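Researcher: Re-running this chain for the archive, since the previous output was lost when a drive failed. Same request as before.
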Amino acid sequence: MGPGLRRAHRSATIRGGAVRYADRLVLRDLELNVGPRDRLAVIGDNGAGKSTILGMLAGTVPLAAGERAVELPGGLAWAQQRPAFAPGSTVEQALGSLLAGIRGIEARMTAVAARMGQGSPAEQAALAAQLGDLEAEYGSRGGYTLDIRLNIALEQLGLGGLDRDTAVDGLSGGERARLALAAAVSAEAELLLLDEPTNDLDEAGLGWLEDRLGSHRGALVVVSHDRAFLDRFAEDILALEDGAVRRYGNGYSGYLAGRAAERRSLANAREAWRRDIARTEAMLEANAFRLSAIPRKMEMAAFGHGAFRQRSRDHGAMSRIRTAKERLSRLLESPAPKPPEPLRFAPPFTAPPRAGAGAPNSTDDGVPQQLLTASGVRLGAAGTGPRLLLEQLELRAGDRWLVSGPNGSGKTTLLRVLAGELPPVGGTLAVRPGLRVAWLRQDLSDPSGRRLLPAFAAATGTDPEEAAAMLLGLGLFPPSALSLPLNELSVGQLRRLELAVALTAPSDLLLLDEPTNHLSPELAEQLEDALEGYPGAVVTVTHDRRWRGRMASGHARQLQLGPGGVVTQG
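Model: Regenerated structure tokens:
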């Protein structure tokens, strides 16, 4: 390879790709071409196979069918969400493995340079040419400034003070992911594969990463649920569902428009199917009536033209009835798919609570009902200082609050206090009698062997038949999932279950802890829209920039957690 390296044809292509894990077909018939400057985003539910697509491009996931063709003289770099390193590796060794492509060129340059001055003149000339090619390749990959870029990346991603001799096994999952991210964006590879790169980043780190990616000269394929990130970087969206990939152009807005058009198309097809059934049934009924009007018996003398006309009418009606029945049978056997309905809160939210369950959400003069009052609330073990200090807070129906603060400041703890799960050790927390609280938790797990449908029925106070209709009507689960044990559900499925309960069981106060985690971008958009019609109070903890921006534009009030868990209002 020589100076013309960067001008070579560059692409990564998968044709007819399929991946199977044991008996499960994860992906099928994948057709994907990544051009030199493409910006692609892969989205879909947890476990759908998003990271698998990155592995297919990287060549670490074997194909059960199809072929992979990669021409990337400038290499590729992959920042995995959960990178694995050799047991006992130090941070320095882990970085070496992550940057093996460039470090390998370095090692070959050193080995060739060490042989210079040895052998015949012809051998020396060959070594000089080889070294020249390696130096050109190394330069084209940015090898001479790699360590500078790497040090900057580690510093900006919060790892600047990390001892390179530290065992990588001792790092947290977030630190290992950021280590891989720092190496990947420093490599200046022609193709960057990034798996949830904005997770675990603070505002400064996120800003630096986006600026760095904005100047990246190669291609980018990213798995992300960060809608603000998708809106900025994605030119095309690859939506993964049921093992198949559908490509949407014109960025994130084009994806949303495309999905909306698909729902309209399904709705139109469903309505046409229902009209066709109605017309066929009407035709069947009309011909059955005509047939019933034809006399079933005739006098023996009734021969000639009259008898012929009567038999013709009988035969024509029977033929039309038979045709209509066959058509109706075909229509009923092949129904048009019912389009998924956008998320919305169930009608019971508009009604006042049942008798004995508290007061309506407004007083007689129309003032929003007060739901909760906190005064001088303190939470924490005696002698350790308060983990939470909330001097004054009033929650009323219709309120929208956004909780902010650094990681570990107590945002989730605040929600638990508002939910009544953590009693304060000081101050007062006055709650309206019968207050109904629902929330989406950040920590999703259920070790029980309960099954999905009975769990939903119990949470919503409905019988199994009614619960099944309600749950399937939300479009969050297929019928085959209703019998799954909760301890076998993915975190994405558990989030959907919590979401289904929150949408269905009436509540006055809705607590949302990172509500967009584990939701597809489309569901996150729908949840935001659904909250517009929710009459109760909403308190949200989220890092989702798009969600925060929408709440800010809707004049949501701020609760800011500072050092020591002190809560201030803004």
